[in-house]
Design brief:
With 281 residues, the protein is an all-alpha fold. The chain contains 14 helices and no strands.
C-alpha cells in the first residue's frame, strides 16, 4: 500500500503544478492593431480614410471567460495552503477556481475530494476519489479501493466506522513516528483508537496488511510516535506491554534477561529515546 499511497499523497502538489503550467501555456488574447492616428476626443478621419471612433473602455472578462492568470494562481495557492492546514473551507475555494477556469474542472476533482473530507463530508469525498481513479483507467479495482481508503485515513474528519477509525489512527501514528512531532496527546489518542478497534476489524484479505499487523506491530509505531513527541516513559510502557503479548517473550523464564532484551530492543526501535530509557518499573 505504501507505494500507492506515496503516489497519491502528493496529488495536490502535482495538480497545482498542472494548473500553473496550464495557466502559463495559455496563449494571450487577440491583440488589436495600433491606431494609425493618435487618440483624441475629436471626430476626425485617419490618414487611411477610416472613420475614427471614440475609444472604448476596457472591460473585465466575466468569470470563466478569460480570468487572469494571477487570479487563478492566487486561488490555487489558497487551496494548497488550506489543505496543508487541514482547513475544510477550501471546498468553497475549489468552486471558485472552477468558475475562474472551467478547464480546471477535471483535475480539480482531487482537491474537491480532499476538501470534502476535511469538511466532514467523508463519503462524498471518497466517492469523488473513486470516480476520479476509475476514469483514469490506470488502476485495478483493488488498487482504487486501497488508495481511497489510504487517502481517507489522511483527510477524513468526524466519526468513522471501526475500520475507518483504525486506519486513520494508524496513519496518524505513522506520521508522528516517521515524519514529525505531532504531540503527546495526538499520539496517545491515536493509540487508544487502535486499541479500541483493532480486535473488531477483520482483514479483508491476506493483503490487508495494516489491519493484520495492527496488533503485532502497532505498538512499535505508537512508541516511536511518543518517543518523537518526548514522552519516553509512556513510549517504553506501550512498547513493553505490546511485546509481552508476543510469543518470543513468553519463552523467556528469566525476568532480568527479558527486561534487558526489552530495553535493548526498545532503544533500537525508538531512536529518539536511545540513552533515555526509563528505569525498571
Amino acid at each position: 500500500m505504501s507505494s500507492v499511497v506515496g503516489r497519491w499523497v502528493g496529488a495536490g502538489v502535482v495538480l497545482l503544478g498542472i494548473a500553473a503550467s496550464r495557466a502559463c501555456d495559455r496563449p494571450p488574447g487577440p491583440s488589436r492593431a495600433p491606431p494609425t492616428c493618435p487618440p483624441c476626443d475629436c471626430k476626425c478621419s485617419c490618414a487611411d480614410g477610416t472613420p475614427a471612433t471614440t475609444p472604448s473602455v476596457a472591460t473585465t472578462p466575466a468569470a470563466g471567460a478569460g480570468a487572469s492568470r494571477e487570479a487563478i494562481a492566487e486561488i490555487s495557492d489558497t487551496i494548497a495552503r488550506k489543505l496543508a492546514k487541514r482547513d475544510g473551507t477550501c471546498l468553497a475555494d475549489v468552486d471558485q477556481l472552477v468558475k475562474l477556469d472551467p478547464g480546471a474542472t477535471r483535475w480539480a476533482i482531487m482537491h474537491r475530494a480532499q476538501c470534502s473530507m476535511l469538511a466532514g463530508k467523508c463519503e462524498a469525498g471518497k466517492a469523488l476519489m473513486s470516480k476520479y481513479f476509475e476514469e483514469t483507467g490506470q488502476m485495478l479495482v483493488e488498487q482504487i479501493e486501497r488508495s481511497v481508503e489510504a487517502l481517507a485515513s489522511m483527510y477524513c474528519t468526524g466519526p468513522l466506522d471501526d475500520r475507518g477509525e483504525l486506519l486513520r489512527a494508524l496513519t496518524t501514528l505513522q506520521k508522528g513516528a516517521y515524519q514529525g512531532n505531532i504531540g503527546i496527546r495526538a499520539c496517545s489518542d491515536a493509540w487508544n483508537a487502535v486499541v479500541r478497534t483493532r480486535d473488531r476489524v477483520k482483514p479483508k484479505d491476506d493483503e490487508d496488511s495494516q489491519v493484520t499487523t495492527a496488533k503485532t506491530h502497532g505498538h512499535y509505531t505508537a512508541a516511536s510516535c511518543l518517543g518523537r513527541a518526548g514522552d519516553c516513559n509512556r513510549a517504553f510502557a506501550i512498547y513493553r506491554e505490546g511485546e509481552l503479548e508476543q510469543p518470543w517473550t513468553k519463552s523467556l523464564t528469566d525476568p532480568k534477561q527479558l527486561d534487558t532484551l526489552l530495553r535493548s530492543n526498545f532503544g533500537s526501535i525508538v531512536h529518539k529515546c536511545k540513552g533515555r530509557i526509563p528505569g525498571s518499573g
